[in-house]
Amino acid sequence: MLKRNRSLLDIDRDHLIHPVTSFHGHEARGATLLESGKGMWLKDMDGNELLDAFAGLWCVNVGYGQESIVEVAAEQMRRLPYATGYFHFGSEPAVKLAEKLVELAPSSLTRVYFTLGGSDAVDSAVRYITHYWNAVGKPTKKHCIALERGYHGSSSTGAGLTALANFHRLFDLPRPWQHHIPSPYPYRSEVGGEPEAVIARSLAQLHAKVEELGGPDNVAAFFCEPIQGSGGVIVPPKGWLKAMREACRELDILFLADEVITGFGRTGPMFACEYEGVEPDLMTVAKGLTAGYAPMGALLMSEKVYQGIASAAKGADVVGHGFTYSGHPVSAAVGLEVIRLYTEGGILANGQARGADFAAGLESLADHPLVGEVRGRGVLGAIELVSDKAARTRFDASLKLPDRLFKQGYANGVIFRAFGDNIIGLAPALCCNAAEMALIFQRIRKTLDDLLEAPDVRAALA
User: Fold this and answer.
1) DSSP letter for each residue of 100-133
2) To 10 degrees, the CA torsion angle through 315, 319, 325, 328?
3) Same domain, 77 and 108
4) Fewer C-beta within 10 Å: the chain N or C terminus?
5) Is the per-residue pLDDT at 183 higher than 70?
6) Residues 408 and 304 in one domain
């Protein structure tokens, strides 16, 4: 029998499973409960006020507390809280949101399938890719290639395309048809950081992997993020994305751009593919689509892929893929309002203006004794810590710097992502003003200075 009058922390510890967390580690630590948010600021249940420099989980691009979104969601709930997409039913918000996404996305993308988030958008992509190649008479094209350090969700399928150890360990992943080539990671590239060399190396590795798999007739698709997010905010050199897209075209391999993190103004333009004029065959989006106010993702598909699937149907044959909440009218209404805030409410333009402040803030930390490299684009960036700047040596894992960084940042009133390779990830909301942006970097510098005072960290420096 459940005990009554327990604290929320006790209930959380006893019953709630948190994502990507050590189960026993969480039981020992306990949860940090957030109570409210406004703009760039969060307040926890202890009354601490914190600058959220990570937009929740890369997603709250418009900031917290946007009343117009709340009003739109409430009105849609009153009018029509649910409409299935099965049996040829639909709803006005879903139809209009599909139209808006096609209007904003690269011109190659003309069709939209709605999901609940990024992970099932990737899952949907895999199913549709498989269906497509079977439908057009090329059933041997089954293998998929992605990047080391890439992230494509944590579903049973997508987690194998993801190339982070925690998502594979004890899950029997990746699957035999899922493969990876090295990340275009200029700071740690084996050919040096020159753009031409990094691009040439990636092209050679893609071709080599295709040949290893028996040639293009066996390879279905290449998955990549325009900027790798959870792998440490790895920014490929300009020209890399376009070169890889063209290589896939030549090899007759479908090219999927995963813009779950990079979409909706995060890197400057509405979508990161615009930076190089890349036209993908498929694109996944989520996070900034509803700014985290409601669950929703989408798979955008080219007419080529759509017609390849559609033309194979005979009579009443159906394409057997669907979700109960695909195109949910409340989420779609939220998505429409979020996009209106980007395009008409000035938030996209503000994010673009703050990009220069963000870049300057990153650069201001480049000379810190703990910092090996700063990198970013738009308002997406990273600070990589090293024990030896010249040798680019990572700190020993025994120092447990990620946990210490996060805790010290929290104590200093700023929330960021602390990756396992001692990389600080940053993705502040696009509504951030200049003073808040400056304060983020002041608090991060203090966090680094505090860490530098620790005897074991100082001793580890070269």
Assistant:
1) HHHHHS-TTEEEEEEESSHHHHHHHHHHHHHHHH
2) -60
3) yes
4) N
5) yes
6) no
* CA distances, 224 to each of 46, 133, 183 (Å): 40, 20, 10
Angle at 79 between CA 77 and CA 84, to 5 degrees: 75
What pLDDT does 6 receive?
72
Looking at 321, 343, 365, the residue that finishes a domain is: 343
Domain with 167 in it: 68-343
Q: Which of 343, 359, 381 is the last residue of a domain?
A: 343
Statement: residue 444 has pLDDT above 80: yes
pLDDT band at 317 (very low <50, low <70, confident <90, very high): confident
Q: How many CB atoms lie within 10 A of CB 442?
A: 16
Q: What is the mean pLDDT of the chain?
A: 96
Give 316's pLDDT tier (boundaries 50, 70, 90).
low
What is the pTM assigned to this prediction? Answer: 0.96
pLDDT at 196 over 60: yes
pLDDT score of 85 more than 70: yes
pLDDT at residue 1 tops 60:
no
Residue 12 domain-assigned?
Answer: no
Do the domain assignments include residue 25? no
Give backbone dihedrals phi and psi of 440, rounded to 5 degrees, phi first: -55, -50
The answer as to whether 4 is a domain residue is no
Tell me, yes or no, whether 189 and 325 share the same domain. yes
Same domain, 250 and 395: no
Task: Kindly report the CATH number assigned to the domain that includes residue 243.
Answer: 3.40.640.10
**By percentage, how much of the chain surpasses pLDDT 90?**
96
Structure-derived torsion over alpha carbons of residues 183, 186, 192, 196, reported in degrees to the nearest 10: 90
Task: Assess whether 180 and 235 both reside in one domain.
Answer: yes
Q: DSSP characters for 137-165?
A: T-TT--EEEEETT----SSTTHHHHS--G
pLDDT tens-place string over residues 222-265: 999 999 999 999 999 999 999 999 999 999 999 999 999 999 99
Beta-bridge partners for 14: none
Q: How far apart are CA 145 and CA 162, in angstroms?
A: 10
Rounded CA separation 457/450 (Å): 10
Collapse the DSSP code of 234 into the 3-class scheme (helix H, G, I; strand E, B; otherwise coil) and give the result.
strand
Q: Is 14 within the bounds of a domain?
A: no
Confidence at residue 312, expressed as pLDDT on a 0 to 100 scale: 80
**One domain, residues 163 and 201:** yes
> 303 with 283, same domain?
yes
